[in-house]
Amino acid sequence: MRSSSQAVVTDIEVIEDFSSSAKCDEGFLRVRRLRCQNRRADGTASKVYRVDVVDRPRLDAVSVLVYRRGASGLEVLTRMNLRPAAYFRRGKEMTVPDGATYLRVEEIVAGLLEPEDKGEQGLRHRAAEEVREEAGFEVKPEEIQLLGAGFFVAPGILSEKIFPAAVDVTGKDQGTPKGDGSPLEEGTHLQWRPIRELLAMCRRGEVPDAKTELSILRLLAEQA
């Protein structure tokens, strides 16, 4: 197991909640509050209704299933990341209480696409950069395997698509991930898990990350 930081984070403290004074179009996430109307083929229209749309500064992202071939089969590299949005579920009424705190969420490598990342070559380039930054492996863009089309996580509110990819790092030396210096990367842990064990953990809710489960399923389908 590797760690990008030795800091042990035990809590995330809210210093200020400035939601009531913040503008919708500033910050890491931009909320567009719209009034919309459905236009129908017969020329009629629905009543006016409200729609909230959440955009990132960079529209889409790429995820990378970093894997290697070992004596027991395929193994996948995961990261334990601080995830405030999941953590702040605590204290809220849940339909299905699970007792988890979600200070950290286990997931695969991922990162936002930059404006210069265009087309499939752009996806491969950004995926290789994220693998170097978050996993410590030097890979070439042409080594990146695209796992089909991008997908929405929550299309009712989020405009973001995630484009899944994978890369085989069998036999490659792993360096120390440099990360991006964000406090959200404090105490990030990396570990290898057998691919089917990880899939089972996703289905049991122990790894509650959709891109991880979907990427595993797509990789296994391609290798079947």
UniProtKB/TrEMBL annotation:
Gene3D superfamilies in the cross-refs: Nucleoside Triphosphate Pyrophosphohydrolase
Organism superkingdom: Bacteria
Origin organism lineage: Bacteria, Pseudomonadati, Myxococcota, Myxococcia, Myxococcales
InterPro entries, alphabetized: NUDIX_hydrolase-like_dom_sf (IPR015797), NUDIX_hydrolase_dom (IPR000086)
Residue span(s) of domain Nudix hydrolase: 57-215
Protein name per UniProt: ADP-ribose pyrophosphatase
